Amino acid sequence: MSGTTTAAAALRRRAAGAGANRWAVLVVLCASLLLVAVDATVLHVAVPAVTEDLRPGAMELLWIVDAYPLVCASLLILFGTLGDRVGRRRVLLLGYTLFGVASAVAALADNAQVLIAARALLGVGGAMIMPATLSILRQVFPDRRERALAIGVWSAVAAVGAAAGPLLGGFLLEHFWWGSVFLVNIPLMLVSLPVGRILLPESKGDSDGPWDVTGALMAAAGLFALVLGVKRLGGGEAAGSPWTVLPLLVGAGLLAAFMRRQRRRTHPLIDLRMFARPAFSTSVGCIVLAMLALVGLELIAAQYLQLVLGLSPLETGLRLLPLTVAAMAAGLAGARMLRRFGPRRMVSAGFCLTAAAVVLLTGMGGRDDWPLLLAGFVLLGFGLETTLFGAYESMLSEAPPEQAGGAAAMGETSYQLGAGIGIALLGSVMNAAYAPGLTGVAGVPASASSAASHSLGEAYEVADRLGGPAGAALRHAARHSFVHGLHVTLLVSAGLLLAGAAIALRLPRTMQCETPAAEVPAQREAVEPRAAGVKV
Questions:
Q1: Domain Major facilitator superfamily (MFS) profile, which positions (predicted)?
Q2: Partners of 535 in the beta sheet?
Q3: According to the per-residue pLDDT averaged within each range, which of 71-75, 346-350, 386-390 is highest?
Q4: What is the full DSSP assignment across 80-138?
Q5: Are 339 and 488 in contact, with CB atoms under 8 Å apart?
């Protein structure tokens, strides 16, 4: 039996196309993903410092935060499918290079426009890196049981990266200027380039037919326009404004045309028939909802901890650390939970647990209640990571092996799109609940109230300029309004999470854990006695 097992393992490695140890490959892929995920949130705790130094307007500040995830989300399909054609490792290494260069530009930016451009360039690099990590992982782990464990580690790193960003940013801001949150990327990229070149296997997808350049550009432009419209709503633009409606209509039209084009092509970029599979389409929707809750809430939580409770950036990061630890625990236990409970119960329970955490956090007020924050962040981290693991595993396993690149691009698009929309949507809810509380404050001029209604940070600046009883009254009203807006936002988020729990009921109750014959035909006979009948 041991000889059979050894032969099957060797065949799996050869089928993956790499002689390198697959677990070492997983380490390199997770390091890549960690850097990209950290960069999506590392700027959150630095927003007050950036605001003080660069003095961006309200819309510029939104672009500084949103440019990275929105550009990345727009280009994932383009670079994911390009990697299938020219080689995933080649695109990944190019992404490393671009990421390092953009980080240097961002660190040295002396105005908001340069920082926005650098963040957009970081999004291009991230779009090259993220789909390649998941599609290479799919290749080097053909055995589903091993792949489930690898995806558990991979998805834990994604959640940990998003949660660890504020901690890293807080530490750097305690000792350096805000640009240091970008400089940390450069040495990591300098290490990742040679190590990735040595360890990562090159792989390509099905190369039949030409690469649909027009379709890739349509998808990128459509996603960007659609999320731009949502982002403008999040920035306080009127719903009927042409600068809001036009991007939404253009984006929806381009994506509809893209889908129609893909259905008609013999060799489409994305085989839309995958969405006819309930497990695949449901998993994609669950990823969007989970990331919408995580990133949007995290940005608001970081502002609450710093501006309401008065914590330093480092203290803010440390308060969010329990979320990171809980996410790591859930990721490492994910494969075992999936085998025991199945995708349907696992993902639905993860959403419900996250919703319970969000409702618990509505107890946050004007005073520091660290036991409440600890319990809420632990439940939040464990619930979200449980959801992400089950959704990613179901999505990747449901997609045919020859379409792994397209499936990875869709999964990563969902991840980044959910993060970008989360900031815009929950930010819009927060602004709508926060602004009314700043009107009619005794002794405060209408112009000052209008300026203070943009954000809590601006309200503090206006209050400092006013001084005296009027300034104190404005500061008190702004804090109270922010806490009220936070509670409303949390309740909206809880509703979305419960909707996700209902959607997850479309996932399969159980899944067969066996290696498809089309994936590794030479090893089927050796592996089947061990794999057949095993449920995940």
A1: 25-512
A2: 512
A3: 346-350
A4: HHHHHHH-HHHHHHHHHHHHHHHHHHHHT--SHHHHHHHHHHHHHHHHHHHHHHHHHHH
A5: no
For residue range 365-396, what is the model confidence (pLDDT) as tens digits? Answer: 878 888 888 898 899 888 988 888 888 888 87
3-state secondary structure of 535: strand
Is the distance from CB of 383 to CB of 357 less than 8 angstroms? yes
Would 18-204 and 273-510 be classified into the same CATH topology? yes
Q: Cα separations (Å) of 188 from 36, 103, 195, 426?
A: 11, 11, 11, 32
At residue 406, what is the residue type? G
Using DSSP's 3-state secondary structure scheme, residue 512 falls into strand
Burial class from Cβ neighbours inside 10 Å (0-12, 13-18, 19+) for residue 37 reads buried
**Residue 511's pLDDT is what?**
60
Could you tell me the pLDDT band of residue 244, with boundaries at 50, 70 and 90? confident
d(CA 285, CA 155): 16
Distances (CA, A) of 426 to 56, 275, 429, 451, 528: 21, 27, 5, 21, 48
Contact 189, 96 (CB under 8 A): yes
Domain ranges across the chain: 18-204, 212-268, 273-510
Closest CA relative to residue 228, chosen from 120, 131, 130:
120
Q: How far is CA 465 from the centre of its chain?
A: 38
pTM of the complete model: 0.74
Please, how many CA atoms are within 13 Å of residue 116, restricted to the half-sphere of its CB?
13
Task: Kindly report the CATH class assigned to 273-510.
Answer: mainly alpha
Q: Calculate Rg over the CA atoms of the chain.
A: 23
Buried b / exposed e over 355-390, threshold 16 CB at 10 Å, is bbbbbbbbebeeeeeeeebebbbbbbbbbbbbbbbb
Read off the amino acid at residue 187.
P
Mean pLDDT in residue range 70-75 = 82
Asked if 227 and 423 count as a contact pair (C-beta separation under 8 A), the reply is no
The single-letter code of the amino acid at 382 is F
In terms of Cβ atoms closer than 10 Å to its own Cβ (0-12, 13-18, 19+), residue 454 is: buried
Q: What is the DSSP letter of 238?
A: -
Separation between Cα atoms, residue 150 and residue 139, nearest integer Å: 12
Which is nearest to 501 in space by CA: 391, 352, 338? 352
Question: Of 269, 22, 294, 320, nearest to 154 (Cα)?
Answer: 22
- Token reading at 13: 């490695």
CA distance 348 to 505: 7
Query: CB within 8 A of 46, min separation 6: which ones?
Result: 169, 173, 178, 181, 313
Fold of the 18-204 domain: Growth Hormone; Chain: A; (1.20.1250)
Structure tokens given for 91: 């695109």
